[in-house]
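Fold this sequence, please.
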Amino acid sequence: MTEVNTPAQAAEGAPGGAPPRPGRHTRFVTARPRLSLLVALVLTALAVLAGSGVADRLGSGGWEDPAAESTYATKALEREFPASQPNLLLLVDSGRASVDAPAVTAEARDLAARLAGEKGVTGVGSYWQGRSPALRAADGHEALIAARITGDDNAMGRTLDRIAPHYRGTHGPVRVKIGGIVAVRHEMQTVIKEDLARAELIALPITLVLLVMVFGSAIAALLPLGIGIVAILGTNAVLRALTSFTDVSVFALNLTTALGLGLAIDYALFIVRRYREELSTGADPLTAVAATLRTAGRTVLFSALTVAVSLAAMMVFPQYFLRSFAYAGIAVVLLAAAAALILLPAALVLLGHRVNSLDLRRLFQGRREPKPAERTAWARTAGLVMRRAPLFALGTTVLLVTLGLPFLGVKFGTADDRQLPSTAESHVVQEHIRDGFPGNPGSGLEILAEGSATEAQYAGYKQQVAALPEVARVDGPLVKGDTAYFTVQPKGEAVDDPAQRLVGDLRSLDAPFGTKVTGTAAVLVDTKHAIAQRLPWAAAFIAVVTLLLVFLLTGSVLIPVQAVVLNALSLTAMFGALVWVFQDGHLSGALGFTSSGSIETTLPVLMFCVAFGLSMDYGVFLLSRIKEEYDRTGDHDAAVRHGLQRTGGLITAAAVILAVVMVAIGTSRVTNTKMLGLGIALAVLMDAMVVRSLLVPAIMRLTGRATWWAPAPLRRLHERFGLSEGEPQAHQGSAGDGATGTHEPEPATQPGGARAL
């Protein structure tokens, strides 16, 4: 490899005696900066057009395993017995009159007949058709009309929008409210779109103010926002394209906004900060951009890869809810990194020293010179942590483990109407059904029976089911050719532990025909099984690829292990809060949500992948600066102190800004989105302010020079393929130094993998 020296080395008579020649990437992005920005503007405009209307094409489901027994049974029942799978419920309130009053009966039957004639609606049934007690409220003033809207999520939403205005409201002696699964999901989709627009209005101005406080310069503060907007708009176009051939969840839009702004700001902060450092040494703008891309640019690229890896792990799960976050997350991460490494350098070349223009802090602080890094609060923090390393290592570990203890009591459930605000119409309907109707219609289990059978065989099987201890009632069978179905009502709640055990008992019964069990509890059992089956593979994928990437960055065996363990430890507070707040209901009044007593099964997986990736993002920023200083001096303790001094404020600022974005997302009225936003905000703040600022330096101080140890074969592998932020320095920290505790300065050589950008 060709050796490339830093501007400082060249000025001091380093080999070459002149500023380093920019790498190919630098020459590419800076050769015609105006053209680069113009092309970016055109592509962004096209992305706006391509991504328009993406929210209307996204689904609101995706929690089920498409290959599960319950999914097969649900689809078969939808096809053969549509009335068995109602997803639309009309709650008919007769006021002070009884639902059996003649006028009420006549009006309700007319509503049911009109509904049966609607296009896209099938399987209409009602209390007034068969006088089923399950469809009549205990007080006798409410009853149900049930139906099924056919099609996918978007088709069902369009049908609901078309017919709902004709049924909602007052009709003669009755008043109608609309509920059911299709209404819940459609209302959830609408609320998420409204909340996302509000979150953007909250986050953008606050983020701009924080960026001005961090940079001082209003010009510099606008650059990260521009990168974030490009990433978000580009990802919307990607998601719009994906909806043409696969299902994508509407919840993915929240992640697109949060990561688009958050990571773009992280990457731009890191690059602009390093660029300004290079300018302060007297470098011209082009040289400063070249040096920035060789150093901070590599770190950004590496960070993007680690975040993308964590998000890609969700691809192993079959639920499209999780896979959607992988699609959105990978797209927004790569687009944010690409914009930061291509568009931002072009803008910096054009701005030159004007990047420091409009320093608004002078309005409040005067013209005070910034303190040297050695005299800042981060320098004092680094010194204190290094002196009291055992205390900080033990104290922070105990704190994080303690905060995570509530997660030991986690109970997994399904997403239902309680995700919505208590005033939402579909939530109100489902609440009335839960509290006022016997047996909670829709909460039972359905058994699909396939294969020819006699009445006696059906009767014998029904007796076996009725004999199970958790069964309250068995209805059916309803027979159509060689297919039939039974409805089983559990004694307890729809998805409590006895109901889940009942699913297993039903599936283990011997029957003279094939049986498949579905229903809310069955879907939950199958979802938990699918996640448990694939979670080890996802965790192993994240761990192995993270270990490899961090090794390529550092050349150490110990640091990658530390990174994985400490990253996981940084998430304990988030998971503890998830249970303490959202499952147990603490702060539910202040935060404005209804606790269902459980956590939706896929949400912890999603939050782990996102938060782990963001933790690696901050970890790479810190480790790369420590490695750069260690390569330069060979002094381990000084390198750790220097890394914290230089990046502590930057990482904290990035975490605070990302937390602001996530809290804005957390203002959503949908509980899952609230959990995602507030949980990730807590995770990134704990990671930046506790793990990166206290625990990582303390652990590295305790492990000492052994931190950098690697066996000879791995050292050679890193020399050939590894990446390094720093340029060749007077000392290349030998991976073997830690074994002996001594080192000899080595000639300034360029590591084989430290390729110039």
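The chain has 27 helices and eleven strands. The two ends are 13 Å apart (CA to CA).
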